[in-house]
């Protein structure tokens, strides 16, 4: 039975939503800060695991960001994500911690694939160049999970591959944040400042799948309770996508902004479509329960109350 859990990245989008979940009270949670445990230093995480001996590790830490951050910092995105995954997994193996959930990203899938991305497609094609470094770091950690499982009887290190996420505790910075958080920031401030136009990178036709981060936190608790039935590699998504322009329109509606959009065709937009297959997810019995309009309204409310004055 799982009673104690270590979650890395407790101060991030996934980690904070996890810590807010109603079921958190049922477990003894370790959520060390970076100052407490630096995942880039093997000895620190190894000593922490030796002392605490959690029943399960959830690896949610990582260097993350939107398309601009990925393009500007490929060395950091590759090396630090790789090092964190390597140090944590090898320390967990050394301390005989047999259950681990590793959070990956849909960036690991081949570019220009327009059908739902199933788990078997990883490493079958070229990666999207704008986030290649990040994807390689995530693939490294996933493969290390599978290699540790194969060499150690009774070990079960599993990888979840969420679609794009947004919600409370997101990064709304226009330089380093993801698409939907940026859209909220841009349209919120356009309305606040009386601007009648908001710029979109590209023509708005590329398609993305976004899930409310609190729903991923819910699936993590579902996985804890049903650990044995969760596949070793599993997509977690909503099963449908929208165009970038659809997201802009949805945020504009939530904020009652009546302006127009202008399109900058010189800007990079990444791959044309990225939507994960949820056929395996359906078999677990879980589904995402927060629809897009409700999730956007909740996130806009959070941004208005907690973030907008800080940016």
Condensed summary:
The chain is of the alpha/beta class.
Commentary on this structure:
The chain is α/β, with parallel strands linked by helices. The chain folds into two domains: 191 residues, 3-Layer(aba) Sandwich (Rossmann fold); 83 residues, Alpha-Beta Complex (UDP-galactose 4-epimerase, domain 1), CATH 3.90.25.10. It has ten helices and 13 strands. The strands form four sheets. A six-stranded parallel sheet has the order 2-1-3-4-5-10, sandwiched between helices. The longest helix is centred in the first third of the chain and has 21 residues.
Top-tier CATH class of the largest domain: Alpha Beta
**Strand adjacency order, main sheet:** 2-1-3-4-5-10
Mean pLDDT: 95
Shape: globular
User: What's the N-to-C terminus distance?
Assistant: 44 Å
Radius of gyration: 19 Å
What is the correct CATH architecture of the largest domain? Answer: 3-Layer(aba) Sandwich
What would the CATH topology of the largest domain be? Answer: Rossmann fold
Run of helices and strands: EHEHEHHEHEEHEEEHEEHEEHH
CATH homologous superfamily heading of the largest domain:
NAD(P)-binding Rossmann-like Domain
How many domains, in number, for the residues?
Answer: 2
Structural class, from secondary structure content?
Answer: alpha/beta
Q: Residue share in helices?
A: 40-55%
């Amino acid at each position: 039975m799982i009673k104690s859990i270590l979650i890395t990245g407790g101060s991030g989008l996934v980690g904070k939503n996890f810590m807010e979940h109603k079921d958190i009270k049922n477990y003894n949670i370790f959520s060390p800060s970076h100052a407490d445990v630096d995942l880039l230093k093997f000895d620190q995480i190894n000593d922490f695991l030796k002392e605490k001996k959690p029943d399960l590790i959830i690896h949610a830490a990582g260097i993350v960001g939107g398309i601009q951050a990925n393009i500007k910092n490929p060395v950091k995105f590759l090396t630090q994500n790789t090092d964190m995954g390597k140090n944590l997994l090898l320390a967990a193996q050394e301390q005989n911690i047999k259950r681990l959930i590793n959070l990956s990203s849909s960036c690991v899938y081949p570019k220009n694939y327009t059908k739902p991305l199933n788990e078997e497609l990883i490493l079958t094609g070229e990666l999207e160049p704008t986030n290649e470094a990040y994807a390689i770091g995530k693939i490294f950690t996933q493969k290390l999970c599978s290699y540790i499982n194969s060499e150690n009887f009774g070990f079960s290190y599993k990888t979840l591959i969420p679609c794009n996420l947004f919600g409370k505790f997101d990064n709304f910075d226009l330089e380093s944040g993801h698409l939907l958080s940026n859209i909220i920031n841009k349209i919120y401030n356009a309305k606040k400042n009386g601007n009648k136009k908001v710029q979109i990178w590209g023509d708005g036709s590329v398609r993305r799948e976004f899930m409310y981060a609190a729903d991923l936190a819910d699936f993590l608790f579902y996985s804890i309770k049903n650990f044995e039935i969760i596949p070793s590699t599993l997509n977690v998504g909503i099963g449908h996508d929208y165009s970038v322009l659809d997201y802009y329109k949805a945020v504009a509606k939530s904020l009652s902004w009546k302006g127009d959009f202008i399109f900058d065709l010189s800007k990079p937009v990444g791959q044309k479509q990225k939507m994960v297959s949820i056929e395996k997810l359906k078999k677990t019995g879980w589904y995402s329960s927060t629809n897009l309009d409700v999730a956007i309204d909740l996130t806009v409310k959070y941004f208005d109350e907690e973030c907008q004055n800080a940016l």
